[in-house]
Structures are given as structure tokens and as C-alpha cells.
Write a structure and sequence with these properties.
InterPro entries: DedA_domain (IPR051311), VTT_dom (IPR032816). It is a multi-pass membrane protein. It comes from Deinococcus aetherius. This is Alkaline phosphatase. By secondary structure, the chain is mainly α. The protein has one domain. It has nine helices and no strands. The longest helix has about 35 residues, at about 170-200. The radius of gyration is 19 Å and the shape is elongated. The termini are far apart. About 35% of the residues are buried.
Length: about 200
Amino acid sequence: MAEWVQNLMDSMGYLGILLLMILENVFPPIPSELIMPSAGFAASRGDMNIFMVVAMGTLGSVLGTLPLYYVGRAFGEERLVAWADKYGKWLTLSGKDIRKADDWFDRHGAGAVLFGRMVPGIRSLLSLPAGMSEMPLPRFLLYSAIGSGLWASALAGAGYLLGENYDRVEGYIGPASRIILAVVVVAAVVWFLRRKRAQGAKA
């Protein structure tokens, strides 16, 4: 994949970075940990401007959040609450739980989007709850842009400094992203089991 990413950027330049970062948010198997360090390396060779690299990476990342945001917005809280009340018992999930989660996101959503955009493995998924909780689009875009800008700057800067060894960035971050995903899955399983146990105690 590294060769494909590099070839696309060589042929399309800044537009290639923009396109790749949009795709990275829609199809997570295309990692920003490879795209941005590669672009940073190109900047270190003088083929690109590092500030334009960061700008295009940030813009692509922000644009890439919109499809999942609008999917969440279209699905909506009320529809999800109705679904949970009807079928959620199989997952020990109720409409009340959905509303609690939505209230939590209303209180902490800005921070979740800002910092979550810098966490591999979940950065693209945050757009769904943001849309479902109807976070105002300007606010969502603002915090997405800040978080994405910091992430793009860090990755491009690492690639710029590492030069030909830019691919080491993915080697370091890849295992971390898998650990984060595993923690999220384990936390979800623990939550599910606790709810099931609590419901069994009440019965």
C-alpha cells in the first residue's frame, strides 16, 4: 500500500493528499499514519511545501468526516430510540440508554471530537455519534479541523524529520491503534455483561 500511496501523491501532488485523506476517513484500512508521513518525506525532498501538505491533509480529513456525520444525522436519535425500545432487549439496550448516551455526547461531544480525531482506530467513527446527537455542523467542523490539523501536523512533521525512514511512523502507530480498538471492544463487552447482570438481579 505504501507504494500505491506514494505513486498517487507523485502523480496528483496536493490533490492526491486531499483525496487519500478523504478516503482514509471513509475506508479506515487506508491509514493516515502512512499518507501524511509519506507527504512529509516528499516535503523534506523539496517536492512539496510542508505547510501545504498539512493544509491539504487537514482539509481532506475534515471533508472525510462528513459522510458518516450525515449518516448519523439521517438515522437520528429518535429513530434509534424507537429501534432500541423495540429490538434493544436482545442487546440489553433501551431507548433510555440511547438518550443517556446522547446527553453525554451533548456535554462532552466537543472534547470527544477534538481529541478523538487524534486517536487511531476511532477517529473516523466519531462522526456517527456526532451526527446522531445533532451536534451543529459548524461546531463539529471546527473541532474536527483543530484535531485533524494537529494530527496531520504531527504525522507530516514526523515524516519530514525521518526522511527515507518515514514508514517507521506507521510501524509505531499501527500497534497502538490495534490496542486502542481492543480496549474499546473490551469496554463495550464489559458494559454489555454488567447491564445483563444488573437486569438479571432485578428479575
